[in-house]
């Protein structure tokens, strides 16, 4: 194995919107906002790169005027919930020191990923990566995996992809990339040790 490919949300950065919203809203409002924002077509379009954050805010507040201020608050501040999963970040550093080539493959909004790259310097350890909004492709579309392999000249037999969503891992395997399914809060170190990578 030479190339380790990481998803970002819940693999490198904690992404638990319910936990975040609970700090600011009652349970019923939190539940509504989870549906209105994180299950919306607009959220998918942000990942696809076909909509920018201000457009999404305008669209969502028009559809849900009774939550106008709450939607704006969440959409302008949600990136603060994304904090490093420190144990996994340490593993990224170890893998880099061991000589592995590191890449990203993530569904992420264009403006939000720029914020993350500026906020957290461990992203400098990665040689490259594919971010959905920059390519107008989202996992688990086969094309996004093929684009990663092609752009960085990666051999599938030498590449391991780590993701917290089983559908994304299944598609990686369909593309003959080794997959490591990592449900939220699983022990990445143990999984990599099983594969003789650490």
UniProtKB/TrEMBL annotation:
Q: Which domain of life is it from?
A: Bacteria
Hydrolase among the record's keywords? Answer: yes
Question: Transmembrane region positions?
Answer: none
Task: Show the SUPFAM superfamilies listed in the entry.
Answer: HAD-like
Spell out the Pfam families in the cross-references: Hydrolase
Q: Does the keyword Ion transport apply?
A: no
Q: Which GO terms describe its molecular function?
A: hydrolase activity
Q: Which InterPro entries does the protein's record reference? A: HAD-like_sf, HAD-SF_hydro_IA, HAD_sf, PGP-like_dom2
For this UniProt record, the keywords arranged alphabetically read as follows: Hydrolase
Which protein is depicted? HAD-IA family hydrolase
């Amino acid at each position: 194995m030479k190339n380790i490919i990481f998803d970002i949300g819940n693999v490198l950065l904690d992404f638990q919107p319910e936990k975040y919203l609970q700090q600011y809203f009652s349970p019923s409002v939190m539940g509504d906002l989870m549906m209105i924002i994180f299950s919306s077509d607009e959220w998918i379009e942000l990942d696809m790169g076909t909509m920018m954050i201000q457009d999404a805010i305008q669209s969502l507040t028009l559809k849900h005027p009774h939550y106008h201020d709450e939607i704006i608050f969440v959409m302008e501040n949600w990136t603060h919930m994304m904090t490093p999963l420190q144990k996994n970040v340490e593993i990224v550093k170890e893998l880099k020191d061991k000589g592995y080539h590191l890449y990203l493959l993530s569904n992420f909004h264009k403006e939000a990923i720029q914020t993350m790259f500026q906020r957290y310097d461990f992203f400098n350890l990665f040689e490259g990566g594919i971010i959905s909004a920059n390519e107008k492709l989202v996992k688990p579309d086969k094309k996004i995996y093929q684009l990663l392999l092609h752009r960085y000249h990666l051999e599938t037999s030498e590449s391991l992809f780590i993701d917290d969503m089983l559908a994304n891992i299944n598609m990686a395997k369909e593309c003959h990339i080794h997959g490591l399914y990592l449900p939220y809060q699983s022990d990445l170190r143990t999984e990599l040790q099983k594969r003789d990578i650490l």
